[in-house]
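hey can u check if this looks right to u? its 371 residues, i copy pasted from the old doc so theres a chance i mangled smth
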Amino acid sequence: MKKTILIFALSRSPWIGGIYYRKNIIQMLLQNKKILEKYKILVITNNKYVKDFECFGEKITIKSCEDRWVLLFALLFLPIYCIKYRVKYIFPFKPYAVLKLLQIIPVSWIADFQHCYYPEFFEEKEVKQRNRNFKKMCNAQNPLVVSSQSALADLKKYYNAERKNVYVVHFTSYIDEELKKMAKLDKKMLLEKYDFLNKDYCIICNQFWKHKNHVLVLRAIEVVNEKQPENNYIYVFTGEPNDRRDPDYIKTINRQLQIPGIEERVKILGFIDRVKQLYLMSEAKFIIQPSLFEGWGTVVEDAKKMGKKVLLSNIDVHYEQKNSNCIIFDKEDVNSLADAIIDAFNCKIPKVMQSEDNTIEYSKVLEKIFE
């Protein structure tokens, strides 16, 4: 009888990127025959995220609960499900003594080390909590996953972690179901709702957190306008305009929007449906990813999957993640980004859905973890 890998997606945090990450990992597991010969996949998540995992159909089992019961559910039902489904691994999960008693192996995951580079973007309490959690994971002997070689270097640099069982697991975006739904969208309705679809536009798909560096894009628009006064370029932003760690950040964004020549070119859509977001990405001239810091960006993987041109900030992980469709600019140099924007808008980029998929290749690392 097969044992089970439990994908833990139960959280009180609204970080949608973490849900997409787990979804991509599940697709990697399901594409690996050696893993499927030994294991079944169980997902435990919040009710509101169930739809994100339903695309896998009967290939996985899903258990869920309401947000307000997350903590109670984890304490009471998690052990029950672990016994019932003969769980051998929980991913991602921190090491706990009770798991050892149940002979369950937690596989920990550190997404990035942003707080080490930009502690000012966090509350002091959160920095201390992250350090405690990371040290606990580094000192344990269970498998530990990081998403990039860049993160692995940071692990050694900041936590002196020369430990065994550390694995770099890249992921690709699993958006096959979304691409199918895109083909069925009412294009006329979308044209009416998003009037910029018949114009030259680029898109920035990030939550409005300070490290996502939206301000650089807004400043670059001003420079583009100076260099090309007659341009009609549109800049589309998706993502919730709120940074819980710095509530004043959106005020900085709004001040920048008030500069003449900027507000009329900017469309802030807020948090939108995933299928519509991907459709807007597919129709854009190009995508901008201006982040000051990333672990392994889902937006970049989405773009690669759809064969889109991407302007990437010059952080280490972007050099690691980029392909031939990516152009690097200086994350602190407004002129560098402005020049890249002008070049990208003026370049005729064919809308070809040339899929790039390294899922099976990347999944081979998971074989070593889930033995």
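The mean pLDDT is 91.
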